[in-house]
Design a protein that fits this description.
It is a single chain. The longest helix has 4 residues, at 102-105. Strand 5 (46-52) and strand 6 form a beta hairpin. By secondary structure, the chain is mostly beta strands. 3% of the residues lie in helices and 50% in strands. The N and C termini lie far apart (40 Å). The model has no long low-confidence stretch (mean pLDDT 96).
Length: 127
């Protein structure tokens, strides 16, 4: 089992910045990759960004590319999402996730392929 806890959400104005953190505990060595998803009211959960745990290979949704940066710290078992130039459309509940399978990670944009989830943290971008 892997436990994930998000931190750092809140309210920010359009164009502002926010950092989300995720702390992993438990069997963290079983994680192949970690990532962020988000879900706005009335919408499906969508992929935001991910990073492989060993090699640090990153991937981003087109909607956040160039604005968001994902990073991880293997010693502290933490993952961050630096969000810059934020837009109203970034308003959502953000979820930290872990994937234990390299094969399932090939379909990483599908939330059902991820094994563990945090409880979610709210981010609101005001205009």
């Amino acid at each position: 089992q892997v436990q994930l806890v998000e931190s750092g959400g809140g309210l920010v104005q359009t164009g502002g910045s926010l950092i989300l953190g995720c702390t992993a505990s438990g069997r963290t060595r079983s994680s192949y990759a970690m990532g962020w998803f988000r879900q706005a009211p009335g919408k499906a959960r969508e992929f935001v960004a991910s990073i492989t745990w060993r090699n640090g290979v990153k991937d981003y949704a087109d909607s956040v590319k160039g604005r968001f940066t994902i990073s991880r710290n293997g010693v502290r078992n933490t993952m961050d999402l630096q969000m810059n130039t934020m837009e109203v459309e970034d308003t959502a509940t953000y979820y930290c996730a872990a994937c234990t399978s390299r094969d399932r990670y090939f379909a990483r944009y599908d939330a059902s392929k991820w094994d563990y989830w945090g409880q979610g943290i709210q981010v609101i971008v005001s205009s």
